[in-house]
Amino acid sequence: xxxxxxxALAVAAFCGAPAIAQDAATAGPxxxxxxxxxxxxxxxxxxDQAHRGAQEAHAELGNPGELLYTGxxxxxxxxxxxxxxxxxxxxGRDVVLLSNNAGDQIVPAAQAAQEAGTRVVTWDSxxxxxxxESLFVAQVDFAEIGVVMADMAxxxxxGEGQFAILSATPDAANQNAWIAAMQAALAADEKYAGLELxxxxxxxxxxxxxxxxxxxxxxxxxxxxxxxxxTSVGIVAxxxxxxxxxxxxxxKVSGLGVPAEMVSYTLNGCAPxxxxxxxxxxxxxxxxxxxxxxxxxxEAAEGQTFEAGRMGTYTIERDPTRDNGLRVLMxxxxxxxxxxxxxxxx
Length: 346
Ligand code: RAM
Known about the structure:
Bound molecules: alpha-L-rhamnopyranose
CATH architecture of the largest domain: 3-Layer(aba) Sandwich
């Protein structure tokens, strides 16, 4: 066996091939790893679901260290995330699991944390430049999100009409990447030629701001047929705004949302289709990655394969959706309609 492995390695080296897949690394339970789960901000369901997944992994691995779930307010997200990351490093926490809402502004704090021995693993929303993060746990492929949103728009608008995007914050790396991916998808296929993106606005992942921005979009664009909101906060606010104003026959809502929050709007036709992934699983997988890195069971390196408990085997790869950075790809995506939303909302 040893002989075979060595010759396989020699061939891989000779061919310039990437490192051959090793046996999947597994987590050694019971080791003390102090973790911080740092969402964009506190107070919304998807991040609480991710916390649940992380708690599940924490208990399963019997980690005697602490799992701290903390975050800023939505109004102070950028400065608050940088401050919490900096504090976590100065307190000697082993890992910060970060859903980044600060774009590349967080890079100096992330680099300083890494230098102080605190691993920074991003999930949900990466550091755009990849600087300062060990790797990104991607919920789904970011290019695919663009195609899914383009297809939902195409289907809801029957291939033709004006639509606008209601996003989260202007710095949100995940939403910005998804919007760019949607624009690329629209440009790449003739079938979308009838869809016209007329505006992009930001509701800052705050309900009231998003609600008002949705209404302003309708005022500004009398022929608007769809608001595409790639944010769980924005999509609910936009659907409520259209419902409250009796506009659902004219202007539909779609995007990324949590089934439990969207079910009534999907059943009444205001938001006929939307998509999401499991935030519970995302929190669970991100926790595993952080634990495996901190305990030395894996390295943040391309080709590294590992087991993540009930979720199975993953391999670290180059992130094809960024110029620089590594990722672990989770998936899958689910598109929700009146057919399946009730079951998912349980
Ligand atoms: C909001 C946040 C989060 C995003 C979802 C879809 O909850 O902006 O980062 O993944 O929407």
